[in-house]
């Protein structure tokens, strides 16, 4: 019969179990030998042949001691060590039993422990192989004792019962071992599945566009994702710090929620953030502790989505209306020109024809801007040096606007700064912002442009600062709305188109400062395609 043992590359837990069982193997014979030598042993230990008992016990202890190093250093494969050690256990216990008076000494029960340990450490038929060897050894010893009259009586019944107990132990231990292994396999499978789900959830949470923050009952940050860091302008050292020390405005919104229980906060902008945010609060109750889950949404994106939905239908409607207006407008403009060329009109009537031409041109400009809303082409994004491009553009802009070189000042913290944008569309954005600034600026220089990189988000930006008197809060709240203007001759589409163009190029346009010293518009660029 060839026993089937565990595979050679046995798991670390099997080696640990073998090591612990070897500790038992070393302790039993050592205690036996020590008690006999000290004269305090029970009467059934070694009365038949004390010398054989002591020699066998010492050799058994020495072998167990050496086995510690063999197991630790993996001198032999696992299956070889298990087979060799358990066969030697059977031999040593049979000799100890013989030296103590045979089966009647009761030492044969030690073989039950050996078989149970061997059954748990092996698989297949090996457990029954150990039981068979032990049973045959006990029966052979009983037969030899009866044949040579070593003892006064020979108990075959006791030997047979021991054999039965060996097989029963092997069967039960083998069944238990199979169930333990099946449970371990299932636990390992479920553990791997849970680990996969945990990694998947972590990846989803880290790469989701919404910012996620979890704080405990005392307001300390327990978890955050990359989006939350970006929105709040924080760094990775935020863990275990209080929310009030890092983001006071968000902490204020949390306090208001705890009082009113309104789950969605109004718009707010963090001190170090670059966009307006909307916070949603939810309680998390787990094992008697209460945490708060905070979801941060970019209000700019939400507003853009709503604006696009509104303007999608509005664009089609206005494009149709603009097209229909153009035909009668052309007729009015042509009629005005013909009337102006007539020799029969007075000077006052000639002035009226100029008004007709002037306002016809204005209406045509409005129509062109409206049509531009509905047919704006996609961005042809390119990466280029912003400083060199802007210097070239301003040289032409100064000539176009009849300005001097001292009217516009360009400051840059970097001689070379790469950004990604559609150059033609960027020219349209810069023109709108500079033209608006020149309209209100009164100091010297009229415009100040600054190129730098944000310390919070590490994104390149361009500031366009005028020397005007600023704007009211009412005007500030509507400057990026389409068709909103404070000029009688304006269309109200310049800043709106500039912001839409920036969004299409993965950039952002915002009013960074507004005071009686002037306004500053900032464009945050993308540095990657």
TrEMBL record:
InterPro entries noted in UniProt: HATPase_C_sf, HATPase_dom, His_kinase_dom, HisK_dim/P_dom, HisK_dim/P_sf, PAS, PAS-like_dom_sf, Sig_transdc_His_kin-like_C
SUPFAM superfamilies registered for this protein in UniProt: ATPase domain of HSP90 chaperone/DNA topoisomerase II/histidine kinase (SSF55874), Homodimeric domain of signal transducing histidine kinase (SSF47384), PYP-like sensor domain (PAS domain) (SSF55785)
Lineage: Bacteria, Pseudomonadati, Pseudomonadota, Gammaproteobacteria, Thiotrichales
One Pfam family here: HisKA
Residue ranges of domain Histidine kinase in the record: 320-529
Catalytic activity field: ATP + protein L-histidine = ADP + protein N-phospho-L-histidine
UniProt keywords, alphabetically: Membrane, Phosphoprotein, Transmembrane, Transmembrane helix
Entry protein name: histidine kinase
Domain called PAS: residue spans: 203-239
Membrane spanning stretches: 20-40, 52-71, 91-115, 127-144, 156-177
SMART domains: HATPase_c, HisKA, PAS
Superkingdom in the source lineage: Bacteria
GO MF, one example: phosphorelay sensor kinase activity
The protein's Enzyme Commission number: 2.7.13.3
């Amino acid at each position: 019969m060839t026993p089937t043992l565990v595979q050679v590359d046995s798991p670390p837990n099997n080696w640990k179990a073998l090591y612990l069982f070897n500790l038992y193997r070393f302790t039993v014979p050592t205690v036996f030998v020590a008690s006999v030598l000290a004269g305090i042993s029970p009467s059934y230990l070694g009365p038949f042949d004390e010398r054989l008992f002591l020699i066998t016990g010492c050799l058994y202890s020495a072998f167990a001691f050496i086995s510690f190093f063999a197991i630790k250093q993996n001198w032999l494969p696992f299956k070889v060590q298990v087979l060799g050690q358990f066969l030697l256990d059977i031999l040593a216990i049979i000799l100890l039993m013989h030296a103590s008076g045979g089966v009647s000494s009761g030492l044969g029960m030690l073989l039950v422990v050996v078989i149970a340990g061997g059954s748990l450490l092996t698989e297949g038929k090996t457990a029954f192989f150990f039981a068979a060897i032990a049973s045959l050894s006990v029966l052979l010893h009983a037969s030899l004792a009866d044949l040579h009259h070593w003892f006064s009586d020979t108990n075959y019944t006791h030997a047979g019962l021991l054999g039965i107990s060996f097989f029963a132990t092997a069967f039960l231990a083998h069944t238990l071992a199979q169930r333990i292994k099946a449970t371990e396999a299932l636990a390992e499978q479920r553990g791997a599945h849970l680990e996969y789900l945990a990694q998947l959830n972590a990846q989803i949470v880290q790469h989701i566009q919404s910012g996620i923050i979890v704080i405990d009952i005392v307001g300390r940050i327990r978890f955050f994702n990359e989006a939350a860091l970006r929105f709040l302008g924080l760094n990775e050292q935020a863990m275990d710090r209080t929310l009030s020390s890092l983001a006071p405005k968000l902490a204020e919104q949390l306090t208001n929620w705890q009082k009113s229980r309104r789950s969605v906060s109004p718009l707010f902008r963090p001190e170090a953030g670059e966009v307006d945010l909307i916070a949603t609060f939810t309680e998390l109750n787990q094992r008697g502790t209460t945490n708060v889950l905070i979801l941060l949404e970019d209000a700019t994106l939400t507003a853009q989505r709503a604006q696009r939905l509104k303007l999608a239908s509005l664009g089609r409607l206005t494009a149709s209306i603009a097209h229909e207006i153009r035909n009668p407008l052309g007729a009015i403009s042509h009629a005005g020109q013909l009337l102006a060329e007539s020799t029969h009109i007075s000077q006052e009537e000639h002035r009226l024809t100029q008004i007709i031409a002037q306002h016809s041109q204005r209406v045509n400009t409005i129509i062109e801007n409206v049509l531009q809303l509905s047919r704006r082409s996609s961005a042809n994004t390119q990466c280029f040096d912003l400083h060199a491009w802007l210097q070239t553009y301003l040289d032409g802009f100064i000539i176009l606007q009849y300005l001097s070189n001292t009217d516009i000042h360009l400051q840059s913290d970097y001689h070379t700064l790469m950004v990604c944008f559609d150059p033609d569309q960027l020219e349209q954005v810069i023109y709108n912002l500079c033209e608006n600034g020149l309209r209100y600026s009164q100091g010297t220089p009229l415009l100040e442009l600054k190129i730098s990189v944000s310390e919070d988000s590490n994104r390149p930006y361009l500031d366009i600062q005028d020397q005007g008197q600023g704007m009211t809060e009412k005007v500030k709240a509507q400057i990026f709305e389409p068709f909103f203007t404070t000029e009688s001759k304006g269309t109200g589409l310049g800043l709106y188109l500039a912001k839409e163009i920036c969004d299409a190029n993965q950039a952002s346009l915002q009013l960074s400062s507004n005071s009686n010293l002037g306004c500053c518009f900032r464009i945050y660029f993308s540095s990657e395609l």
